[in-house]
Amino acid sequence: MNKIFSPKILTENSIDAKRNFIAKVTIALCFVLSVGFSIVFFIQKIYPLNIIFAFFSIVYVIAWSMYELKNPLAAKVMLYSAMLAQVFFMAIVLGVFVEIKVFFIPIAIVPLLIFSKKEKVPMYALLILTAVNIVMINTFVHRIYGPEQIYSFETYRNINNAFDITSMLCMVILAFLFLQLTEAGEIELIDANKALSKQKEVELQNNFLLKRAKEDQERMNLMKDHLFRIISHDLRSPINTIHGLTELLISKKLSREEETVITEQLKKSTDSTNQLLDNLLSWSAFQINNASKPNIVEVNIKELINDIFKQLDVKLTQKNISIIEKIDHTIFIQADSSMLEIVIRNIISNAIKFSYQEQVIHVHAEIADRDLVIQVKDSGIGMPKEILDKLFTNDKSVSRAGTYNEKGSGIGLLLCKNLLENCGGKIEAKSIPKQQTIFTIKLPMN
């Protein structure tokens, strides 16, 4: 495809057409001049020149017919050979009294305009023939026919003037045709380059779309594999636990105290499964919609976080964990309320999960450098560097059990990262093993 639309090929084809056009114009010009001079010389009774110009006017007609027969190379060779022969015979008739050499400059230019690169051999052969023609006229013709004066000086002067004007006219026409040929080549080259650039742009765009489609497919495959892994392990495990506990309750062979313990375990398992499903559905929706546009509304941060505390009240009570929050009630942000709730709930749930009995979780929110900054700090088990480095990835190894053996899927923090980045925000984590962990959320105010 690139070869077909190559600027070089397009330009060469167009220039060849121009060369053929110039050759046909030159044939027509030579024919008109030959007929004109034949008539003039007939009127002036200079019959030898009349016969020469009449004869070559017929030759130019034959050269033109070569083009009609789709044989441009033969037409070009006949044209140029006829021009050389015509000048040679004119020199024989006129001798040294007329400057025949004035025709050799336009004649020498013609092959450069009409012959293409593929026609170098005939072009060089005809240029050599031109040089031989000049030598023969200067050496032999002028020596043999030069001294004899056949016509009057006035006749020779008029012929010289006519030939000078004709030569100048031919030079002007050839110069114009040369400029046309050059401009045509430049225009065709520019147009061809534009066409090629446009084609390359389309190819790059198609390649980009193909690459993006491939990346989307790979991402969807990874998501599918991850979902199956979570469903087959993380979701099946608590469901099996719930199933086993309910069978124990149905058996009615338990004491009241044992029933109470099993009921608490059922509550813990259902809460864990519920949070896992929430995260799983949110993360899957985010991946399938490919980071759809957020639904921006005005959110009061203090009210949002207090609502999250209420949602997590059972978990906080189970471990007797206290919350110390420092949030100004005047902090508002333009953000996706659902997205922000999912992120903050996950972070606080994580803090509860990895905190011990009767510990304190600090939640702080402020505006700094046009960003909303939310920090959640716990004094729980912390995490080593190797886990911290993989915390926001799809790596199963970062998933750990909590202080009450709470399970996790490993997608909660990845979901938080994806949701925040979709809104121009980010999340960071710092931790000291067995001492504390601090999560920092940053989100643009606008």
UniProtKB/TrEMBL annotation:
Q: Which gene encodes it?
A: rcsC
Give any Pfam family that matches: HATPase_c
From what organism does this protein derive? Answer: Cytophaga hutchinsonii (strain ATCC 33406 / DSM 1761 / CIP 103989 / NBRC 15051 / NCIMB 9469 / D465)
Keyword Membrane assigned: yes
- EC category: transferase
EC number of the protein: 2.7.13.3
Matching entries from InterPro entries are given as: HATPase_C_sf, HATPase_dom, His_kinase_dom, HisK_dim/P_dom, HisK_dim/P_sf, Sig_transdc_His_kin-like_C
Q: State a single Gene Ontology molecular function.
A: phosphorelay sensor kinase activity
The protein's matches in SUPFAM superfamilies, at most eight in alphabetical order, are given as: ATPase domain of HSP90 chaperone/DNA topoisomerase II/histidine kinase, Homodimeric domain of signal transducing histidine kinase
Q: What is this protein called?
A: histidine kinase
Q: Which UniProt keywords apply?
A: Kinase, Membrane, Phosphoprotein, Transferase, Transmembrane, Transmembrane helix
For this protein, the record's SMART domains field holds: HATPase_c, HisKA
Taking every annotated instance into account, which residue ranges of this chain make up the domain Histidine kinase?
230-446
Its recorded reaction(s) are: ATP + protein L-histidine = ADP + protein N-phospho-L-histidine
Q: Write out the transmembrane intervals.
A: 21-43, 49-67, 87-115, 121-141, 162-181
PANTHER family, alphabetically? HYBRID SIGNAL TRANSDUCTION HISTIDINE KINASE C (PTHR43547:SF2), TWO-COMPONENT HISTIDINE KINASE (PTHR43547)
